[in-house]
Amino acid sequence: MKKFISGVIVGVGISACSVAFASDGLQAFLFPSKVTFHNNGMTNEVSFSKDDPVINFNNKAYIPLRLFSETLHAQVNYSTPSDSSDGTNLIDIYLNDDNFVIPDNEKIISIRNIESNPTGGHTFSLSGLITTNKSLEGKIIELHALDANKKIIGSNAEINIDGAAALNVGETRKFSTSIYSKETPIAYEVVLKDSWGLTQLDYFMDGMLQNVAGISFGPPAIDLNKHALISHLQFKNQSDKDIFIEPLSIEYQINKVIGDKKELIKSYKLASLQNKIPSMSWYQASIPAWNLRDQNGSPVAAGSYEVSIIVPNSLTFTSEGTSEKQTLTNFSNYTKWDVEITQDQINKITNTN
After folding, report:
1. Which is nearest to 287 in space by CA: 150, 153, 140?
2. Is the confidence at residue 10, as pLDDT, over 50?
3. Which residues pair with 92 in a beta bridge?
4. Contact present, 129 and 75 (Cβ < 8 Å)
5. Of 80, 95, 110, which residue is a domain's last?
6. Which residue has better confidence, 33 or 119?
7. With DSSP H G I counted as helix, E B as strand and the rest as coil, what are the percentages for the chain, rounded to 5?
8. What is the pLDDT of residues 261-287, one digit of tens each?
9. Is 322 exposed, middle or buried (0-12, 13-18, 19+ CB in 10 A)?
10. What pTM value is reported for the model?
11. CA neighbor of 6 nearest in space, from 49, 47, 52, 46
């Protein structure tokens, strides 16, 4: 009888390890049934199979949750236990509404089931589902808050998507972010940009910057939930004026360090960033997550690695209200970080032993 209990649990996407509570004294029975949903003159019959049966437990009928939800054209999103969920399985069910599906400008992705709530300080939390229709390679997602006239009143490109860093075509995942806006948003839109996405705030100070603007390149970190090494790179303008920069080209590299020699493992050139950088804002770079595999797809060896960016020595820009050209030098405090990668991390991220 245990297999019927686990069958119901698997119906919502949870692995068999989650059903350890099942015992020989806990019995469920097949319960052949015909279940039909009647809604606004429409009928939908649930299609059961030997893998997704109705069972009877303790004189109650149970239907696999995913099968139940998808018959109602709802989306079920399952997240494995993590520190952020206090070790609890997370199951979210979203009722589908085609009138509230928002595609991006290139229809590469679409978002729906958006929930927005004020969190104080002119900040609004935002969450929902994101579906990948085409490859996102080289792209970054930028979410805009809009007023009644469809004017952009807020922007954020720092979006957290549940699950592994690699987002495959056809996948639907839960996302969350926040947007700063002095006005209450009436609507939202999603735009895809090449390499760089805009985040706007009212005020911030970044201790990594020596000047009014520059590059913030933080230390990379192994994220076991994302199954990758994650790096963050922004170009920030912390002045009270818009600036206009000449084309800025950056290359991101990962090298294996062997004594005094380096072996290139990964290299990625970002699209050029240029023109207007609004005041009190930054452009977030789309840095590919690294799955700890070499260029041939094989897991790398444990040891020392260097994660770096190659940037020019100076950058020319002008400020709002003047045509006078200015020059930024040493506009990035940090351009490289040393990372020690263990065999245990490699095994967990590449799913090898």
Report:
1. 140
2. no
3. 77
4. yes
5. 95
6. 119
7. 10, 45, 45
8. 999 999 999 999 999 999 999 999 999
9. exposed
10. 0.74
11. 52
Q: Say yes or no to pLDDT of 11 above 60.
A: no
Return the DSSP state at 181: -
Task: Examine residue 209 and state whether it is found in any structural domain, yes or no.
Answer: no
- From residue 224, how far is each of 24, 168, 218 by CA, in Å? 35, 18, 18
Does residue 255 form part of some domain? yes
Give pLDDT, residue 47.
76
Across 318-333, average pLDDT: 93
Non-local (6+) Cβ contacts of 315 within 8 A are 245, 246, 248, 327, 328, 331
Whether residues 57 and 158 fall in one domain: no
Tell whether 274 and 348 lie within a shared domain.
yes
Q: Pull the structure tokens for residue 185.
A: 């948003």
Closest CA to 317 of 241, 256, 228: 241
The percentage of residues in the chain with a pLDDT greater than 90, rounded to a whole number, is 58
Distances (CA, A) of 115 to 124, 176, 187, 188, 296: 10, 9, 11, 11, 42
Question: What is the predicted pLDDT for the residue at 26?
Answer: 56
Instruction: Determine the residue type at 116.
Output: S
Give the contacts of 58 (CB within 8 A, at least 6 positions apart): none
Residues 353, 275 share a domain: yes
pLDDT at position 46 is 77
> Of residues 29 and 205, which shows the higher confidence score?
205
> Strand locations in 170-260, DSSP E?
172-180, 187-194, 196-200, 213-217, 221-223, 228-230, 233-237, 243-248, 251-258
Q: Of all helices (H) and strands (E), which one includes residue 211?
A: none
Q: Are strands 314-319 and 251-258 parallel, antiparallel or unpaired?
A: unpaired
34 belongs to a structural domain = yes
Residue with tokens 């760089």: 196
Cα→Cα distances 17→10, 72, 88, Å: 10, 28, 13
Domain residue limits at 112: 97-194
Residues 251 and 324 in one domain: yes
- 116 and 26 part of one domain: no
pLDDT digits (tens, 9 = 90+) for 94-105: 666 544 567 777
Other CB atoms within 10 A of residue 61 CB: 11
